[in-house]
Design goal:
The complex is a heterodimer of chains A (about 250) and B (about 240). Chain A is of the alpha/beta class. Chain A is about 35% helix and about 25% strand. By secondary structure, chain B is an all-alpha fold. Classes of the chains: A alpha/beta (about 250), B mainly alpha (about 240). Chains A and B meet through helix 2 and helix 3 of A and helix 1 and helix 6 of B.
Chain lengths: ~250, ~240
């Protein structure tokens, strides 16, 4: 397995607030990394730095051997990213929004048509394709955000709370989709839902108050608890840290 | 397709999927009519030219252009789409230019729709159409100046209202920078050379020859430099404030 995402002692401060403190980890091809942590732990901030939206205070991020600070465009080309809250242009229809992303991603010809048709099909947004995004329910908005991230069939996927706001059936579908895709991609997802880690992730990382507290397989995480309960293990690991200083920076 | 054009296309079509475009165009045409015929006394002057029409463009643009530009960046930041945009493989310069050119094209359409004015004056007399064409060109370039200011200001704030008000104030100072109300603010504590420089920034002074149909290369350079300066600041501000 080749290492695709390399995060090295990543730190981010907003003034006096340390949102992320010296976080390091690698993600290889074929891995699904679950990002866990309480609200405001620095999960989204870390993702924003990997995708080049935020500049780290110190530390480096490499994606496919390219440094995100030195060659941001190359890194952004390689990544499909679902930002927190799945922002999209509300006045556009789903179809025109996907076409816009395809324009930016420079997909052309039959490949473009094929990719658009594929994501519409796999994310199941066919019924709302001509609806404007602002009229969609939270679940559909989220799915449009995922569709947008998948459009160029990226080798690296970063999804910030991909199943937030979805109903149980939709959650199941999205998890299956992530599992299907995991063979030829490096994927990072963040989530509050611990069962999700068990269902889709091959590795889990726990961040609290900006520091990395755990890095291992879901089985190792469960083994931390004498009750063999993942919730319990999560509480054991995160309760030791000081109370959360700040809301997650949006 | 280049990413700049992709941004341009999305931005431009977005004007027409909301009522913004239609409201703006109707009000623009209505106001140009009022200014030309009532305040500009188009008929009473008895001359076959469009000077009474162009004379009021700086004042119309003062309020209408910030209304177009206020949402360019503040809306992206407020709705969070800036995070989507800035994590797509585009340069900030492409994004700023694409949005700016879309807004400018939209203004050009509104301006072009004043063509009945041109038909009217041609029906009533024999105006110099070369002069009218030059005036239209000059007016469009001036609109570009207002837009560059407005686009830059909208990158400073998440609030469209604040972007609008600040843009109007700054545009107003640029319109009147050759006049006492602006110059008196600076007189006494800045050197005369700076005072002269400020005076030479006036949109009105630069538009005076343009509205008579004379496109002076100095006026073109002035507006081009102004546009480049504000768009450059725009890029810097977007880079700085995108995540705050």
């Amino acid at each position: 397995m080749s290492v695709t995402i390399k995060v090295k002692s990543l730190t981010k401060s907003f003034g006096p607030i340390h949102a992320v403190r010296g976080v390091s980890f690698d993600v290889s091809h074929g891995e699904v990394l679950g990002f866990l942590g309480p609200n405001g732990a620095g999960k989204s901030t870390t993702m924003k730095m990997i995708t080049g939206f935020l500049e780290p205070t110190s530390g480096t991020v490499e994606v496919n051997g390219c440094d995100v600070q030195d060659t941001p465009i190359a890194v952004k080309r390689a990544i499909g990213y679902l930002p927190e809250g799945a922002p999209a242009y509300g006045e556009m229809t789903v179809r025109s929004f996907l076409n816009f992303i395809a324009d930016i991603r420079q997909l052309t010809g039959s490949h473009r048509q094929q990719r658009i048709a594929e994501v519409i099909d796999s994310i199941n947004i066919k019924d709302v394709i001509d609806q404007s995004i602002e009229t969609l329910s939270k679940g559909f908005k989220r799915r449009v955000g995922i569709a947008q991230a998948l459009l160029h069939n990226p080798k690296v996927l970063i999804l910030d709370e991909p199943t937030d706001g979805l109903d149980p059936n939709q959650k199941h579908e999205v998890r299956n989709l992530i599992k299907e895709m995991s063979q030829d991609k490096a994927i990072i997802i963040s989530t509050h839902i611990l069962e999700e880690v068990h269902a889709v992730c091959s590795r889990a990382i726990i961040i609290a108050s900006g520091a990395l507290l755990f890095d291992g397989t879901p089985a190792e995480l469960i083994a931390k608890s004498d009750r063999h309960d993942i919730d319990h293990a999560f509480r054991l690991i995160t309760a030791a840290t000081e109370p959360v200083e700040t809301e997650e920076i949006a | 397709m280049s990413t700049l054009f992709a941004i341009y296309k999305r931005e431009f079509t977005s004007y027409f999927v909301t009522p913004v475009a239609y409201v703006f165009i109707v009000i623009f045409l209505f106001m140009t009519g009022i200014f030309t015929f009532y305040i500009g006394a188009f008929f009473e002057t008895n001359q076959a030219d469009l000077e009474p029409f162009f004379r009021f463009h700086p004042w119309l643009y003062l309020f209408l252009i910030p209304a177009i530009s206020m949402r360019l960046w503040s809306d992206e930041r407020k709705s969070g789409t800036i995070e989507l945009l800035m994590t797509l493989p585009i340069s900030i310069t492409d994004a700023v230019l694409g949005k700016y050119l879309a807004a400018w094209s939209f203004t050009a359409i509104a301006l072009a729709l004043t063509f009945p004015m041109w038909l009217t004056v041609n029906y009533l007399g024999n105006p110099d159409n070369a002069v009218i064409l030059a005036s239209y060109t000059g007016s469009l370039i001036m609109a570009g100046g207002f837009l560059a200011i407005g686009s830059c200001i909208s990158a400073f704030t998440k609030s469209q209202v604040i972007a609008f008000v600040i843009s109007v104030v700054i545009c107003f100072m640029f319109i009147l920078s050759g006049f006492p109300m602006v110059l008196d603010l600076f007189r006494g504590w800045v050197p005369q050379a700076v005072l002269d420089a400020i005076a030479s920034f006036s949109f009105l002074t630069h538009f005076t020859s343009i509205k008579k149909g004379v496109i002076d290369i100095r006026d073109v350079i002035y507006f081009s430099a102004l546009i480049i300066f504000w768009l450059y600041v725009n890029v810097v501000v977007v880079e700085m404030k995108k995540a705050s």
